[in-house]
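Section 5.1 Outputs to date
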Amino acid sequence: MGLIYAEQVEYMSVDQMQKTHEDEIKIINEIEKLAVGYERGTTEQGELENKLDEYIAHVKAHFANEERLMQEYHFPSYEMHKLAHDMFLMDLQYATKQWKEFGDIKKMINFVAKTPEWIVMHVKSVDAPTADYIARKMEQQNEA
């Protein structure tokens, strides 16, 4: 059982954006599985922490790449989209600090458990229109 499935998330018309979302979903589900194991005593904390670190790095790279694409193709709502990323990253940073500095790994696990709802909403309302715009611009560029 997973927290989120690729089928729940709107398909992206830019392949690299689609792949990034699919990879992120896989990581989130792996964290959920490890977190359950950790709570049952069958998973080492270090294994869970490594996966959480992978998730943090993936999210930062994911957002940086989307922002690069938006700038490259002059996406008109770049600032609004970046603000959504920045707000998510602030929440991620808080959860990470609670974990890394104060040893509260549950804050980080809870943050990850809540992200599927944010992902579904963000992809539908922000990423999908962005990807459609970028895909059109890429197509126009290829035709020129």
